Amino acid sequence: MSLIFSRQCEYALQAVLYISAQEESKFTNIIEISERLDIPMPFLGKTLQLLVQHKVLQSLKGPRGGFKLAKPPDEIALFHVVDAIDGTDFLTSCVLGFSECSSKNPCPVHSDWGALRDRVYQMLASKTIADISKEITDSKQLRTKLRLL
Amino acid sequence: MSLIFSRQCEYALQAVLYISAQEESKFTNIIEISERLDIPMPFLGKTLQLLVQHKVLQSLKGPRGGFKLAKPPDEIALFHVVDAIDGTDFLTSCVLGFSECSSKNPCPVHSDWGALRDRVYQMLASKTIADISKEITDSKQLRTKLRLL
DNA sequence: TAAATTTCGGATAGAAATGTCTGATATATG
DNA sequence: CATATATCAGACATTTCTATCCGAAATTTA
Which residues of chain A are within 8 Å of residue B13 when distances are taken between CB atoms? Predict the structure, then answer.
């Protein structure tokens, strides 16, 4: 099986988008997120803890507690979420798995893949939660997908 | 951890490139490939079997046996190897993990990611073993990387 | 201050991917 | 035809990722 992001990273991205679509000052709890997005609750807990540690989210314990964005949505790029969960190895590691692969010692697809990888990074780094929130507001389809009614 | 291709797929790509760099009519055995490329031998065996089943490679048992390309190198694209090992889900599955995601029901990054994915496919489908063999012939660095002396 | 709620942290369990082992099967060579 | 070589096939082991469980800590509310 080939995949771009780990399942945990997919959960993280979905959850951050869900949280970002809530009222900005409100803390959203795990129970709600896991039920709406159909993500196993304890695993989502671990995942959101990672995002808190990486200062993507802010948490609050106790009644009315939960999670909200740690920064304004235009300061959180998708890349920050991916970085917190999966790390950034995919930006530098060789797509063919050669351990010593660099521009000075390239694999047979080094330059081809490098160009594509740069585009992936550009997309992830430039796309912010604010951008996506705007799209969500403008699209009923997206609200449905994120279970926002 | 995020990765584009599974480790098994990386092994497969490396092995096919190694085989393609050998004399065309010769069968190359697993022992040689696994030692040169530092791939666990039994696992490489399973992997090459998959490539035989998908008609990327041809095998021969017994003395002087081993593996060689099943078709002329200009008829084998990198995509065929990836397809045989990892499959093609990455071309259609949602990068955010939403199960129902399509152009009619897109996720927040559907179009952005779709464009990138198309480029990845283009690269994999257009790059053939013959293309790479030529590069290898022209580059001492590549021969070193593939342990071809 | 007591009780209820919710995240946090560590230990454990299950599933999937990766890696290993053993014997069977086929082929070349003497 | 016997032997050595190499792939093939299935079972098994290990590692990594995903998922679960339980109790502790913090915060709100009554």
Answer: 96-97
